[in-house]
Amino acid sequence: MARLNWKKYQDQFDHFSAELLSENSPGECAILSRIHNICKGDPAVDLLILGTEAPLIAFLEFLFARAEGPYSSVFPLYAHLIGLVFNISSSLKALLNLNAADAIGNMILNKRGRLKFAIADQLELSLLLEWWPTFGLAPITARQVFEAVLQKSDVSHRIRSEEPDLLLRLLEVFPEFQSEFFPPEKTPDDLLIGRQNISPLPSQRRYHRLYANLLEQGHDLRQMIKEEENRILPIQMRRNTFLSFLVKQLHNGECQICAITDNLRDSTCKSPITVHHIIPLSEGGADNARNMLVVCLDHHQEIHNGQIQVLLGDQIEVIHSGGKCMIPSNP
Q1: Domain residues for 70?
Q2: What Pfam family does this protein match (any one) (predicted)?
């Protein structure tokens, strides 16, 4: 028998979710009864999945899809409802508590199963882990999730093979564990250069969607940058990668050095774009737009090799073999 597909009932679930969010303390019996009534007549309505009624599982799948991810402004609302569902089903809660690290690991590796819930980067993982107990679930750590990922059958082999997509994906989500999986003789730039024609990483796809949604809501790019600069990051995080993405948008995804110093290149640079912290974070530099320089990977490597010197003042001073130039600093 086919499983109960929540998409058939998303309009009713949307309406019901709005009702639940408007009530102070909806009772568990009332929630179950209403969900069953919405799905009444479906051939799979009486199925039990993981010891839980199929309509409740369908509603949970719907909520995870609507929650979008911890970056989303609607996430706290749907997280509240997700917690209600877990509290209704003790069997579902027990199962997820037993397999939480593995389930979150699947989200990171895009093996998300039936709970369509994406984790774009370290910040989203941190936010999700902060919210996890509010779902009524046992707390879990990033270390537990990281170890669960490493234990998956193909991951160790892919790490040994230095597969760029996997290494960069792990670096997006687990930068604090970089020494445990990233080749010591390589840099992220090396891997990015090797995957220029591969589809964007999950974080970039998420950032583009989030950026587009914020623009549709009337947010100004400079306002977004200020909001991200003011975001309080979890203690283990040193950089906000969505902020770096926004600064790239400020410069239309183009290298600031290429745009000013054509004499550094025989032709327009086509290498991927990254963000360089002028005063390194490891040396106390701030993770803000003013301390960022949008550069191509070629120039980024030349900066780190000492071929180009970058100084931060009222403007950004770029010193190279052909002289020097001034670039306006970011707001």
Answers
A1: 6-148
A2: HNH
